[in-house]
Amino acid sequence: MKLTQLSRDYFSQVISLGNLVHGDNYLDSERLEQIYQMGLKKSLNASFVAIDESNQVIGFRLTYCAEQWPIDKWCTPADWPVDIEQMAYFKCIAIDPRAQGQGIGPKLLAASIEVLKKQGAKAGVAHLWQQSPGNGAVKYFTKSGGKLIKLHDDRWLENCINDGYECPICGNECHCQAAEMVIEFT
After folding, report:
1. How many CB atoms lie within 10 A of CB 35?
2. Separation between Cα atoms, residue 22 and residue 130, nearest integer Å
3. What are the backbone dihedrals phi and psi of residue 139, each rounded to the nearest 5 degrees, phi first?
4. Residue-range domains of the chain with CATH
5. How many CB atoms neighbour CB 156 within 10 A?
6. Tens digit of pLDDT for each residue in 128-183?
7. Cα–Cα nearest to 60, from 118, 123, 111
8. b/e map of 94-123 (b: 16 or more CB within 10 Å)?
């Protein structure tokens, strides 16, 4: 397995893996292009893919650079440890179910953090899926230094209504909870 910065060459595989792990209509080509652009700053890309020996994507970490993402009602900047201008956003991660438990997630996160620091970020925030199997998302982020800021109910319900997202647990009416968590960079 090796890590490489996300490029358009991997878009179709990232979309397929994202929809497999997070639910139908989680990603599409237009949305992934927007995410890709928000991860570029100072000629550096903060989003990464993990690929196997046959050049197949087995994991990805999509990340927004500081000052290049919209702060919405699901964010609590007054409780963040750094200024808004220094806060990056960890959009999502997905690991192929066959490759989970091999330490790929922490490696992808570390790669993104190294780039974000070079871009000037001091911390990163994420909204983690509380109902992920075994609450793995929150556990993984906590082990990586993440601190809970706030819990948000119905975080992805609007995506179901507006974008046709289908939660793997709730279907087309997601009532899952998001844990807003922050990792400060050292």
Report:
1. 20
2. 13
3. -60, -45
4. 2-184 (3.40.630.30)
5. 24
6. 877 776 777 788 889 999 999 998 888 776 877 888 888 777 788 878 788 899 99
7. 111
8. bbbeebbeeebbebbbebbbebbeebebbb
If you search the block for the tokens 């899926």, which residue do you land on?
Answer: 129
Token pair recorded at residue 106: 């922490």
72-to-33, 76, 89, 128, 136 alpha-carbon distances in Å: 20, 9, 12, 15, 25
What's the mean pLDDT in 69-85?
95
